[in-house]
Amino acid sequence: MDEPSIEIWDLDIIDEVQPCVVLGGIAEMKKKKGKKASIKYKEGSHRDSVLGLAWNKFYRNVLASASADKQVKIWDVATGKCTITMEHHTDKVQAVAWNYFAHQVLLSGSFDHSVVLKDGRVSSHSGYKWTVTADVESLAWDPHTEHSFVVSLEDGTVKGFDIRAATSSSTSESKPSFTLHAHDKAVCAISYNPSAPNLLATGSTDKMVKLWDVSNNQPSCISSRNPKAGAVFSVSFSEDNPFLLAIGGSKGTLEVWDTSYDAAVAQRFGSYIKKSRTHTWVLTWLN
């Protein structure tokens, strides 16, 4: 997004032309001849582009945002107001992610080469900080354990961390659980499979999408493909059909990869594929 506002759309309304809620944004802009425009922002708004968003899956009215203004904000979508503003980064904040188990715990990743964990219930919480080797592109909590997360970087690497190894209240020098040299260029997106533990997808500006088995913190690439989407900016496994992977790239088209038909995936994660297909059949029958 190029503007500091966040638009919320109601997909139940067909052909809607306006968002149902707008969080923050520009309230007024005055242009004076020969001078820089004077901008007045809405109360609580970001002051620069919004680069990352994360819904809280437990508290459905809570949304976290990351911005080029170096801030992380927590919003109450029901009221349209910013409830907490955090300023613990020194450069653009690219990504935010809520923990699946401890619902108030939030990760943020920045161009300042750091990942910070904060407790959203306490704005003064000093948090934990991990230093990484390049700009942060994306973050993902492991949905199968509350202790682990992965971070993807501009230098093509993916690092895994265990928060139990954090050694102080402010800065952790603990080594990553693993470092994966995943791609030749920036790893813009990562996604854990919600059904099969240790199955991780990565997407990169090198135009490739790869699937990894990260069992025992020893990642191995089990499949890769060029989806012809251009530079890959987004990958995401489906919550309802866990082995469907959505892929978005610079060509502006959406690709879908049914990873359950990949031989290596079927060999390693076949039991989870059978469960997901049974679940999908039951849902289809019930509907």
Automatic annotation (TrEMBL):
Provide GO CC annotations from the record: nucleus
Enumerate the Gene3D superfamilies for this protein.
YVTN repeat-like/Quinoprotein amine dehydrogenase (2.130.10.10)
Q: Does the keyword Ribosomal protein apply?
A: no
Q: Spell out the Pfam families in the cross-references.
A: ANAPC4_WD40, WD40
Q: Which domain of life is it from?
A: Eukaryota
Query: Cross-referenced InterPro entries, in alphabetical order?
Result: Apc4-like_WD40_dom, PWP1, WD40/YVTN_repeat-like_dom_sf, WD40_PAC1, WD40_repeat_CS, WD40_repeat_dom_sf, WD40_rpt
**UniProt cross-references to SUPFAM superfamilies, sorted A to Z:** WD40 repeat-like
Using the record's annotation, list all stretches that form the Anaphase-promoting complex subunit 4-like WD40 domain: 43-99
Q: Which UniProt keywords apply?
A: Phosphoprotein, Repeat, WD repeat
Q: Which SMART domains is this protein grouped with?
A: WD40
Q: In which ranges do the WD repeats occur?
A: 43-85, 180-222
The protein, known as: Anaphase-promoting complex subunit 4-like WD40 domain-containing protein
A biological process term (GO) from this entry: rRNA processing
